[in-house]
Amino acid sequence: MAVFVCEKCGYEKETRCKPRKCPQCGESNTFKKKEA
């Protein structure tokens, strides 16, 4: 599992795959992997 952070709003989601769309701000392709 990895943590991905939306670069626009800061929303964090723990998942296996990079999310396509942020559920908080609605932007697409804004997620970057957060290093543990």
UniProtKB/TrEMBL annotation:
- Going by the entry's taxonomy, the superkingdom of the source organism is recorded as Bacteria
Spell out the protein name for this chain: Rubrerythrin
To which species is this protein native? Answer: Carboxydothermus ferrireducens DSM 11255
